[in-house]
Amino acid sequence: MSELIINKNDLVHNINIIKNYEKEENYTIFAVVKGNAYGLGVNEFTKVLIDNGINNFAVASSTEAINLRKNIKEKILLLTPYINEEILSNLIKNDITLTIDSVKGAGLVNEISKKLNKKVYAHIKIDTGLSRYGFDYKNYKEIINMIKENENIIFEGIYSHFSNSLASDNSFSNIQYERLINVIEKIEKEKITFKYKHICNSSGFFKYKDKHLNAARVGSAFSGCATGIKTDLKKIGLFHTKLTKVRNIKKGDYVGYANSYIAKKDMKIGILETGYYDGVGLELITQRFKFKSKLKNALLSLKSLIKGDNMTLNIDGKIINVIGQIGMHDVVIDITGLDYKEDDDIYFYYRPVYINENVKRVYK
Fold this sequence. Notes:
Helix content: 25-40%
Order of helices and strands: EHEHHEHEHEHEEHEHEHEEEEEHHEEEEE
Oligomer: single chain
Number of helices: 11
Strand content: 15-25%
């Protein structure tokens, strides 16, 4: 039975780095815990964060918000705007802070909250260039009128989202930031103020200190992931499984489905009790998605077809090749010349976000 081990000391280390990165007093970190806290196990993860001074959380779906509310009393910001009356009623009853991104949505929230005799806290989402949710940044007059017309909603926050904060070229992030600032300034001229103003995600938080405003939404950085940015964060998530079989194969033998690997020499191989059902190997798909060049993507897929999944695992400090295609419940590794035996415990780092929720999370 495989499991994902989370080192609590390393997690606390990351929490402290994130908390101390912004020295401004009363700065607010919204810990984004969507996707089962990026795979870390949301209930235990939020408990560790609360114990270490993080008291504001953000999620992506109504289901995540309601489930999290069963375990914590702290603020929960829902980042997805909804216009379904039943869903909104349930969210309002559970004191979830909502995202508003349309006049229609605001009117519905205002109407439902009046029926429930409850005030609702909300953040206004501004689309500055990501083109998903949000008011168009040019429509500030519409936003001002919406705020004035919906008195049962307490608009405590306003935010946007960087679309390309990982890029070396910061020009579009600068444009997005200026668009948000311009909207905020226009609204504040009407004597409307916001407690929370935020645009930075994890990468933006570490990369753009001049764009911090007074809050940030930090998610993947807690697990040690701040792609392309040098930090002292520690990687969280040690995958533990068993070596269920060790065998020798001959030069020319096939390994894996579709005869995807051909042994170039006599080899010693091991079979791990895990596979893509647990999430191991899913990262390969994401890596292919990141390639901008369709030609590179096609070549990588061709290479995978010919040679197998072209994946390595860092086991006991050794870089070990995965050979053949990854199966649902088995991964074949090349252990030629290494002293591994059947039933050995195998540990390797794997990004928690890819690991199936059915895999047990163990905090140590």
